[in-house]
Amino acid sequence: MESTFSLPADTIADDAGTDAPSFLDRLFDQGLLVRTGVDGLYGRSGDFESVVDALERLITRLGAADGAEVMRFPPAMSRPAFERSGYLKGFPNLAGTVHSFCGNEAEHAELLACVEARNDWTGQQRATDIVLTPAACYPLYPAAAARGPLPAGGGLFDLQSYCFRREPSLEPTRMQLFRMREYVRMGSPEQVLAFRESWLARGTEMIRSLALPLAIDVANDPFFGRAGRMLANNQRQQNLKFELNVPVNSVEKPTACLSFNYHQDHFGTTWDLRQADGSVAHTACVGFGLERITLALLRHHGLDLAAWPDSVRATLWG
Amino acid sequence: MVTSDDIRTILGSNEALAPVAQQIAEDDSLFDRGLDSFGSVQLMLALEERFGIEFPDEFLTRRSFSTIRAIRETVSAVLQSVAA
Predict the structure, then answer these.
(1) From edge to edge, which strands make up the β-sheet containing A97-101?
(2) Looking at the whole model, is its pTM more than 0.95?
(3) Domains of chain B from N-terminus onward
(4) Min CA distance, A279 vs chain B (Å)?
(5) Which among A39, A40, A166, B80 is least buried, having the fewest CB atoms inside 10 angstroms?
(6) For each of chain B's 84 residues, which pLDDT tens digit applies?
(7) In chain B, whose CA is at the least distance from the CA of A237?
(8) ipTM score
(9) Which of A226, A229, A234 sits opposite B37 (nearest CB)?
Protein backbone atom coordinates (compact mmCIF):
# COMPACT_ATOMS: atom_id res chain seq x y z
CA MET A 1 0.00 0.00 0.00
CA GLU A 2 1.21 3.50 -0.70
CA SER A 3 2.03 5.74 2.22
CA THR A 4 4.12 8.64 0.93
CA PHE A 5 2.36 11.82 1.97
CA SER A 6 3.14 15.43 1.39
CA LEU A 7 1.46 18.80 1.18
CA PRO A 8 2.51 21.49 -1.28
CA ALA A 9 5.40 23.61 -0.06
CA ASP A 10 3.36 26.80 -0.19
CA THR A 11 0.66 25.44 2.09
CA ILE A 12 0.66 25.12 5.83
CA ALA A 13 1.82 21.70 6.96
CA ASP A 14 -0.61 21.67 9.83
CA ASP A 15 -3.24 24.29 10.55
CA ALA A 16 -3.04 23.81 14.30
CA GLY A 17 -0.81 26.12 16.30
CA THR A 18 0.01 28.71 13.64
CA ASP A 19 -0.98 32.37 13.35
CA ALA A 20 -1.41 32.16 9.57
CA PRO A 21 -4.97 31.95 8.22
CA SER A 22 -6.24 28.40 8.39
CA PHE A 23 -7.24 26.51 5.27
CA LEU A 24 -10.87 27.04 6.30
CA ASP A 25 -10.31 30.82 6.65
CA ARG A 26 -8.76 30.94 3.20
CA LEU A 27 -11.70 29.04 1.73
CA PHE A 28 -14.03 31.64 3.29
CA ASP A 29 -11.85 34.54 2.18
CA GLN A 30 -11.80 33.23 -1.38
CA GLY A 31 -15.57 32.77 -1.30
CA LEU A 32 -15.35 29.06 -2.02
CA LEU A 33 -17.22 28.27 1.21
CA VAL A 34 -19.79 30.56 2.83
CA ARG A 35 -20.13 30.95 6.60
CA THR A 36 -23.48 30.14 8.24
CA GLY A 37 -22.51 30.65 11.87
CA VAL A 38 -22.39 26.90 12.53
CA ASP A 39 -19.14 24.93 12.40
CA GLY A 40 -19.37 22.30 9.70
CA LEU A 41 -22.40 23.85 7.98
CA TYR A 42 -21.36 25.89 4.96
CA GLY A 43 -22.60 27.32 1.70
CA ARG A 44 -20.68 26.50 -1.48
CA SER A 45 -19.70 28.83 -4.33
CA GLY A 46 -20.22 28.20 -8.02
CA ASP A 47 -16.55 27.30 -8.41
CA PHE A 48 -16.77 24.81 -5.56
CA GLU A 49 -19.88 23.27 -7.09
CA SER A 50 -18.27 23.07 -10.53
CA VAL A 51 -15.65 20.75 -9.02
CA VAL A 52 -18.29 18.66 -7.25
CA ASP A 53 -20.24 18.37 -10.53
CA ALA A 54 -17.10 17.35 -12.42
CA LEU A 55 -16.29 14.72 -9.79
CA GLU A 56 -19.79 13.34 -10.10
CA ARG A 57 -19.39 13.01 -13.86
CA LEU A 58 -15.98 11.38 -13.41
CA ILE A 59 -17.38 8.83 -10.95
CA THR A 60 -20.26 8.14 -13.32
CA ARG A 61 -17.78 7.52 -16.17
CA LEU A 62 -15.69 5.17 -14.03
CA GLY A 63 -18.71 3.04 -13.17
CA ALA A 64 -20.64 3.38 -16.42
CA ALA A 65 -19.81 -0.04 -17.83
CA ASP A 66 -21.32 -1.78 -14.80
CA GLY A 67 -24.85 -0.54 -15.50
CA ALA A 68 -25.76 0.42 -11.94
CA GLU A 69 -29.36 1.35 -11.28
CA VAL A 70 -29.54 5.02 -10.36
CA MET A 71 -31.57 5.95 -7.28
CA ARG A 72 -31.73 9.31 -5.55
CA PHE A 73 -33.35 9.85 -2.18
CA PRO A 74 -33.88 13.14 -0.35
CA PRO A 75 -31.44 13.69 2.53
CA ALA A 76 -33.81 12.10 5.01
CA MET A 77 -35.30 8.69 5.66
CA SER A 78 -38.10 7.02 7.55
CA ARG A 79 -37.52 6.97 11.30
CA PRO A 80 -38.77 3.37 11.69
CA ALA A 81 -36.37 2.29 8.93
CA PHE A 82 -33.56 4.23 10.59
CA GLU A 83 -34.29 2.56 13.94
CA ARG A 84 -34.32 -0.88 12.32
CA SER A 85 -31.03 -0.20 10.51
CA GLY A 86 -29.05 -0.46 13.74
CA TYR A 87 -27.39 2.95 13.30
CA LEU A 88 -28.22 3.92 16.88
CA LYS A 89 -26.27 0.94 18.22
CA GLY A 90 -23.04 2.30 16.83
CA PHE A 91 -23.48 6.03 16.33
CA PRO A 92 -26.13 7.53 18.64
CA ASN A 93 -24.04 10.70 18.95
CA LEU A 94 -23.94 11.37 15.21
CA ALA A 95 -27.63 10.94 14.39
CA GLY A 96 -29.88 13.85 13.48
CA THR A 97 -33.62 13.64 14.00
CA VAL A 98 -36.27 15.98 12.57
CA HIS A 99 -38.58 17.50 15.16
CA SER A 100 -41.61 19.73 14.55
CA PHE A 101 -43.98 21.85 16.57
CA CYS A 102 -46.93 19.74 17.71
CA GLY A 103 -48.67 22.09 20.14
CA ASN A 104 -51.91 24.05 20.09
CA GLU A 105 -52.47 27.79 19.71
CA ALA A 106 -51.79 28.56 23.35
CA GLU A 107 -48.55 26.62 23.13
CA HIS A 108 -47.69 28.51 19.95
CA ALA A 109 -47.96 31.74 21.91
CA GLU A 110 -45.79 30.19 24.60
CA LEU A 111 -43.21 29.22 21.99
CA LEU A 112 -43.07 32.75 20.59
CA ALA A 113 -42.69 34.18 24.07
CA CYS A 114 -39.79 31.84 24.72
CA VAL A 115 -38.11 32.87 21.45
CA GLU A 116 -38.63 36.52 22.35
CA ALA A 117 -37.13 35.99 25.80
CA ARG A 118 -34.32 33.87 24.34
CA ASN A 119 -35.39 30.91 26.46
CA ASP A 120 -35.58 27.30 25.31
CA TRP A 121 -38.52 27.20 22.87
CA THR A 122 -38.24 23.53 21.93
CA GLY A 123 -40.48 22.06 24.61
CA GLN A 124 -43.37 21.54 22.18
CA GLN A 125 -41.17 20.06 19.49
CA ARG A 126 -41.82 16.38 18.89
CA ALA A 127 -39.89 13.82 16.85
CA THR A 128 -41.42 13.38 13.41
CA ASP A 129 -41.25 10.18 11.37
CA ILE A 130 -38.22 11.59 9.52
CA VAL A 131 -34.52 11.23 10.37
CA LEU A 132 -31.62 12.82 8.48
CA THR A 133 -29.77 10.37 6.24
CA PRO A 134 -26.50 9.29 7.87
CA ALA A 135 -25.07 7.59 4.75
CA ALA A 136 -26.34 7.67 1.18
CA CYS A 137 -27.05 3.94 1.11
CA TYR A 138 -29.24 3.75 4.24
CA PRO A 139 -32.57 4.43 2.49
CA LEU A 140 -31.68 1.91 -0.24
CA TYR A 141 -31.70 -1.34 1.76
CA PRO A 142 -35.37 -1.33 2.79
CA ALA A 143 -36.37 -0.17 -0.70
CA ALA A 144 -34.37 -2.96 -2.36
CA ALA A 145 -35.63 -5.60 0.08
CA ALA A 146 -39.24 -4.56 -0.56
CA ARG A 147 -38.85 -5.66 -4.19
CA GLY A 148 -38.28 -9.27 -3.15
CA PRO A 149 -35.23 -11.45 -3.88
CA LEU A 150 -32.41 -9.96 -5.95
CA PRO A 151 -32.06 -11.01 -9.58
CA ALA A 152 -29.67 -13.88 -10.34
CA GLY A 153 -26.67 -11.57 -10.83
CA GLY A 154 -27.33 -9.63 -7.64
CA GLY A 155 -27.93 -5.88 -7.50
CA LEU A 156 -25.87 -2.78 -8.18
CA PHE A 157 -27.02 0.73 -7.30
CA ASP A 158 -25.75 4.27 -7.84
CA LEU A 159 -26.64 6.71 -5.04
CA GLN A 160 -25.91 10.26 -4.01
CA SER A 161 -27.24 12.20 -1.06
CA TYR A 162 -26.51 14.93 1.36
CA CYS A 163 -25.75 13.15 4.66
CA PHE A 164 -25.83 14.45 8.21
CA ARG A 165 -23.47 13.63 11.06
CA ARG A 166 -23.41 15.75 14.16
CA GLU A 167 -19.74 16.39 14.65
CA PRO A 168 -19.14 20.15 14.68
CA SER A 169 -15.55 20.90 13.78
CA LEU A 170 -13.33 23.64 12.43
CA GLU A 171 -11.69 21.14 10.10
CA PRO A 172 -13.26 21.93 6.73
CA THR A 173 -13.19 18.24 5.80
CA ARG A 174 -15.46 17.36 8.72
CA MET A 175 -18.75 18.92 7.68
CA GLN A 176 -22.03 18.18 9.39
CA LEU A 177 -23.92 18.15 6.09
CA PHE A 178 -22.02 16.84 3.10
CA ARG A 179 -22.58 14.86 -0.08
CA MET A 180 -21.73 11.22 -0.46
CA ARG A 181 -21.77 9.42 -3.80
CA GLU A 182 -21.98 5.65 -3.53
CA TYR A 183 -22.09 2.48 -5.54
CA VAL A 184 -23.68 -0.39 -3.60
CA ARG A 185 -23.38 -4.04 -4.58
CA MET A 186 -25.71 -6.76 -3.28
CA GLY A 187 -25.30 -10.48 -3.84
CA SER A 188 -23.07 -13.35 -2.77
CA PRO A 189 -19.95 -12.76 -0.66
CA GLU A 190 -17.82 -13.45 -3.75
CA GLN A 191 -19.73 -10.95 -5.87
CA VAL A 192 -19.61 -8.12 -3.36
CA LEU A 193 -15.94 -8.68 -2.47
CA ALA A 194 -15.00 -8.68 -6.16
CA PHE A 195 -16.88 -5.39 -6.48
CA ARG A 196 -14.95 -3.90 -3.57
CA GLU A 197 -11.62 -5.07 -5.04
CA SER A 198 -12.43 -3.52 -8.39
CA TRP A 199 -13.27 -0.18 -6.77
CA LEU A 200 -10.11 -0.21 -4.66
CA ALA A 201 -8.24 -0.23 -7.97
CA ARG A 202 -10.55 2.24 -9.73
CA GLY A 203 -10.60 4.64 -6.80
CA THR A 204 -6.83 4.62 -6.59
CA GLU A 205 -6.55 5.32 -10.32
CA MET A 206 -9.14 8.10 -10.04
CA ILE A 207 -7.27 9.95 -7.28
CA ARG A 208 -3.96 9.46 -9.09
CA SER A 209 -5.50 10.99 -12.21
CA LEU A 210 -6.29 14.05 -10.06
CA ALA A 211 -2.60 14.29 -9.09
CA LEU A 212 -3.31 13.83 -5.39
CA PRO A 213 -1.08 11.87 -2.98
CA LEU A 214 -2.88 8.93 -1.44
CA ALA A 215 -2.61 5.98 0.89
CA ILE A 216 -5.03 3.11 1.34
CA ASP A 217 -5.37 1.87 4.88
CA VAL A 218 -7.54 -0.50 6.86
CA ALA A 219 -10.01 1.56 8.86
CA ASN A 220 -12.92 1.51 11.26
CA ASP A 221 -16.08 3.51 11.67
CA PRO A 222 -16.23 5.94 14.63
CA PHE A 223 -18.35 3.69 16.85
CA PHE A 224 -19.57 5.22 20.11
CA GLY A 225 -18.20 4.42 23.57
CA ARG A 226 -16.42 1.37 25.01
CA ALA A 227 -18.67 -1.02 23.15
CA GLY A 228 -17.70 0.94 20.06
CA ARG A 229 -14.03 0.26 20.65
CA MET A 230 -14.80 -3.44 20.45
CA LEU A 231 -16.84 -2.98 17.26
CA ALA A 232 -14.00 -0.95 15.78
CA ASN A 233 -11.46 -3.63 16.69
CA ASN A 234 -13.69 -6.31 15.15
CA GLN A 235 -14.06 -4.26 11.97
CA ARG A 236 -10.33 -3.78 11.59
CA GLN A 237 -9.43 -7.38 12.39
CA GLN A 238 -11.78 -8.60 9.68
CA ASN A 239 -10.59 -6.02 7.09
CA LEU A 240 -14.18 -4.89 6.59
CA LYS A 241 -13.33 -1.27 5.86
CA PHE A 242 -10.59 0.41 3.85
CA GLU A 243 -10.16 4.11 3.33
CA LEU A 244 -8.32 6.05 0.67
CA ASN A 245 -6.65 8.87 2.55
CA VAL A 246 -5.34 12.16 1.19
CA PRO A 247 -3.54 14.73 3.37
CA VAL A 248 -5.72 17.85 3.51
CA ASN A 249 -5.67 19.34 7.01
CA SER A 250 -2.36 17.73 7.94
CA VAL A 251 0.07 15.05 6.88
CA GLU A 252 -0.21 13.23 10.19
CA LYS A 253 -4.00 12.93 10.07
CA PRO A 254 -4.93 12.51 6.43
CA THR A 255 -8.53 12.73 5.29
CA ALA A 256 -10.57 9.74 4.18
CA CYS A 257 -11.86 10.73 0.75
CA LEU A 258 -13.12 7.33 -0.39
CA SER A 259 -14.17 4.30 1.66
CA PHE A 260 -14.62 0.69 0.64
CA ASN A 261 -16.88 -1.26 2.94
CA TYR A 262 -17.91 -4.89 3.24
CA HIS A 263 -21.00 -5.17 5.46
CA GLN A 264 -21.08 -8.98 5.35
CA ASP A 265 -24.73 -9.99 5.89
CA HIS A 266 -25.51 -7.12 8.31
CA PHE A 267 -27.95 -5.29 6.03
CA GLY A 268 -29.13 -8.52 4.40
CA THR A 269 -30.16 -9.93 7.78
CA THR A 270 -31.52 -6.62 9.05
CA TRP A 271 -33.78 -6.14 6.01
CA ASP A 272 -34.34 -9.78 5.02
CA LEU A 273 -32.65 -8.99 1.74
CA ARG A 274 -32.35 -12.24 -0.21
CA GLN A 275 -30.33 -13.50 -3.13
CA ALA A 276 -32.09 -15.22 -6.02
CA ASP A 277 -31.51 -18.61 -4.39
CA GLY A 278 -33.14 -17.47 -1.16
CA SER A 279 -29.96 -17.12 0.90
CA VAL A 280 -29.26 -13.89 2.77
CA ALA A 281 -27.60 -11.25 0.59
CA HIS A 282 -24.23 -9.77 1.43
CA THR A 283 -23.56 -6.12 0.62
CA ALA A 284 -20.61 -3.83 -0.01
CA CYS A 285 -20.27 -0.21 -0.99
CA VAL A 286 -17.76 2.33 -2.20
CA GLY A 287 -18.35 5.85 -0.94
CA PHE A 288 -16.93 9.08 -2.36
CA GLY A 289 -16.80 12.13 -0.10
CA LEU A 290 -17.51 14.79 -2.73
CA GLU A 291 -16.67 17.80 -0.58
CA ARG A 292 -13.59 16.07 0.80
CA ILE A 293 -12.17 15.29 -2.64
CA THR A 294 -12.93 18.85 -3.70
CA LEU A 295 -11.14 20.21 -0.63
CA ALA A 296 -8.17 17.92 -1.31
CA LEU A 297 -7.94 19.34 -4.84
CA LEU A 298 -8.14 22.91 -3.52
CA ARG A 299 -5.47 22.20 -0.93
CA HIS A 300 -3.03 20.61 -3.34
CA HIS A 301 -3.64 22.56 -6.53
CA GLY A 302 -4.60 25.93 -5.08
CA LEU A 303 -7.75 27.98 -4.64
CA ASP A 304 -7.70 29.26 -8.24
CA LEU A 305 -9.26 26.52 -10.36
CA ALA A 306 -7.96 28.08 -13.58
CA ALA A 307 -4.40 27.55 -12.32
CA TRP A 308 -4.79 23.84 -11.65
CA PRO A 309 -2.53 21.50 -13.64
CA ASP A 310 -3.74 20.93 -17.18
CA SER A 311 -3.94 17.17 -16.66
CA VAL A 312 -6.21 17.62 -13.64
CA ARG A 313 -8.43 20.09 -15.47
CA ALA A 314 -8.61 17.71 -18.43
CA THR A 315 -9.63 14.83 -16.17
CA LEU A 316 -12.36 16.90 -14.58
CA TRP A 317 -13.63 19.04 -17.43
CA GLY A 318 -12.38 17.29 -20.58
CA MET B 1 -12.46 -19.51 39.39
CA VAL B 2 -14.49 -19.16 36.22
CA THR B 3 -15.99 -22.36 34.85
CA SER B 4 -17.19 -23.18 31.37
CA ASP B 5 -20.67 -23.68 32.78
CA ASP B 6 -20.59 -20.12 34.16
CA ILE B 7 -19.88 -18.95 30.64
CA ARG B 8 -22.60 -21.17 29.13
CA THR B 9 -25.13 -19.69 31.55
CA ILE B 10 -24.30 -16.21 30.25
CA LEU B 11 -24.39 -17.42 26.64
CA GLY B 12 -27.89 -18.69 27.43
CA SER B 13 -29.05 -15.11 27.93
CA ASN B 14 -27.59 -13.97 24.60
CA GLU B 15 -30.28 -13.67 21.94
CA ALA B 16 -28.30 -15.36 19.17
CA LEU B 17 -26.81 -18.15 21.27
CA ALA B 18 -29.61 -18.92 23.74
CA PRO B 19 -31.08 -21.88 21.80
CA VAL B 20 -27.71 -23.65 21.51
CA ALA B 21 -25.80 -22.42 24.56
CA GLN B 22 -25.72 -25.75 26.39
CA GLN B 23 -24.49 -27.63 23.31
CA ILE B 24 -21.53 -25.35 22.60
CA ALA B 25 -18.20 -27.09 23.15
CA GLU B 26 -15.18 -25.45 24.74
CA ASP B 27 -13.48 -24.56 21.44
CA ASP B 28 -16.49 -24.07 19.17
CA SER B 29 -16.45 -20.69 17.42
CA LEU B 30 -19.29 -18.63 18.85
CA PHE B 31 -19.32 -16.61 15.63
CA ASP B 32 -19.95 -19.80 13.65
CA ARG B 33 -22.82 -20.55 16.05
CA GLY B 34 -24.57 -17.28 15.24
CA LEU B 35 -22.89 -14.55 17.30
CA ASP B 36 -22.49 -11.28 15.38
CA SER B 37 -20.54 -8.11 16.19
CA PHE B 38 -23.31 -6.44 18.16
CA GLY B 39 -24.03 -9.74 19.91
CA SER B 40 -20.39 -9.96 20.97
CA VAL B 41 -20.68 -6.47 22.50
CA GLN B 42 -23.78 -7.55 24.43
CA LEU B 43 -21.89 -10.64 25.58
CA MET B 44 -18.94 -8.52 26.69
CA LEU B 45 -21.24 -6.24 28.72
CA ALA B 46 -23.03 -9.24 30.27
CA LEU B 47 -19.71 -10.75 31.34
CA GLU B 48 -18.63 -7.45 32.90
CA GLU B 49 -21.86 -7.28 34.87
CA ARG B 50 -21.77 -10.92 35.98
CA PHE B 51 -18.14 -10.82 37.18
CA GLY B 52 -18.01 -7.19 38.28
CA ILE B 53 -15.08 -6.38 36.02
CA GLU B 54 -14.20 -3.97 33.22
CA PHE B 55 -12.24 -5.41 30.33
CA PRO B 56 -9.21 -3.28 29.45
CA ASP B 57 -9.10 -2.00 25.88
CA GLU B 58 -6.57 -4.62 24.79
CA PHE B 59 -9.13 -7.34 25.52
CA LEU B 60 -11.90 -5.69 23.50
CA THR B 61 -11.26 -7.86 20.47
CA ARG B 62 -13.16 -10.46 18.50
CA ARG B 63 -10.69 -13.13 19.62
CA SER B 64 -11.33 -12.54 23.35
CA PHE B 65 -14.96 -13.59 22.93
CA SER B 66 -14.62 -16.15 20.16
CA THR B 67 -14.93 -19.39 22.19
CA ILE B 68 -15.90 -20.47 25.69
CA ARG B 69 -12.23 -21.23 26.39
CA ALA B 70 -11.14 -17.77 25.18
CA ILE B 71 -13.78 -16.08 27.30
CA ARG B 72 -12.83 -18.13 30.37
CA GLU B 73 -9.16 -17.24 29.93
CA THR B 74 -9.94 -13.57 29.30
CA VAL B 75 -12.21 -13.23 32.34
CA SER B 76 -9.71 -15.13 34.51
CA ALA B 77 -6.89 -12.84 33.40
CA VAL B 78 -8.90 -9.73 34.27
CA LEU B 79 -10.01 -11.16 37.63
CA GLN B 80 -6.39 -12.03 38.47
CA SER B 81 -5.16 -8.58 37.54
CA VAL B 82 -7.88 -7.08 39.77
CA ALA B 83 -6.91 -9.41 42.66
CA ALA B 84 -3.23 -8.54 42.23
Answers:
(1) A76-78, A125-132, A97-101
(2) no
(3) 4-83 (1.10.1200.10)
(4) 15
(5) B80
(6) 789 999 999 999 988 899 999 999 999 999 999 898 889 999 999 999 999 999 998 999 999 999 999 999 999 999 988 777
(7) B62
(8) 0.82
(9) A234
